[in-house]
TrEMBL record:
Classification via PROSITE patterns: RBFA
Pfam families: RBFA
Family classification: Belongs to the RbfA family.
Organism of derivation: Buchnera aphidicola
Protein name: Ribosome-binding factor A
InterPro entries: KH_dom-like_a/b (IPR015946), RbfA (IPR000238), RbfA_dom_sf (IPR023799), Ribosome-bd_factorA_CS (IPR020053)
Main location: cytoplasm
Length: 132
């Protein structure tokens, strides 16, 4: 039977918390003018690489998103250094930031489904009125 909480999942969860705190409090770049949320962290099995998925509070344009990703990826060495101080790991993983648009996609699907339900209800009631 597989373990419920394996080591890499626990480390990923802890990395998510620590990186979110570091981005919030330690990175003071004026070009990053939005609130960044760390939505998921995927760690390789040997814990040498980590994919950090981030999303933004505001819906920024694609150009601004790319700029922020470039800035964060350039600051990944500094973030690793701060992680070394905050976490007791033998290997601190290399960090690569990715944009996570799953919230926007989910919201879009939800709006489409609401619209379908609304249209179905109105067409149902229109058919009932015609039947009378």
């Amino acid at each position: 039977m597989e373990k419920l909480f394996n080591r890499s999942a626990r480390i990923a969860q802890e990395l998510q918390k620590k990186i979110a705190m570091i981005i919030q409090h330690s990175i003071k770049d004026p070009r990053i003018n939005t609130i960044i949320t760390v939505s998921e962290v995927q760690v390789s099995k040997d814990l040498s690489h980590a994919r950090i998925f981030i999303s933004f509070l505001k819906n920024d344009d694609q150009l601004n998103i790319k700029k922020i990703l470039i800035l964060l990826n350039k600051a990944s060495g500094y973030i690793r250094k701060l992680l070394c101080q905050k976490m007791r790991l033998r290997i601190i993983p290399n960090i690569i930031f990715y944009y996570d648009d799953s919230f926007l996609k989910g919201n879009k699907i939800s709006l489409i489904l609401k619209d379908l339900v609304k249209n179905k209800k109105t067409s149902y009631f229109q058919n009932k009125i015609k039947d009378k």
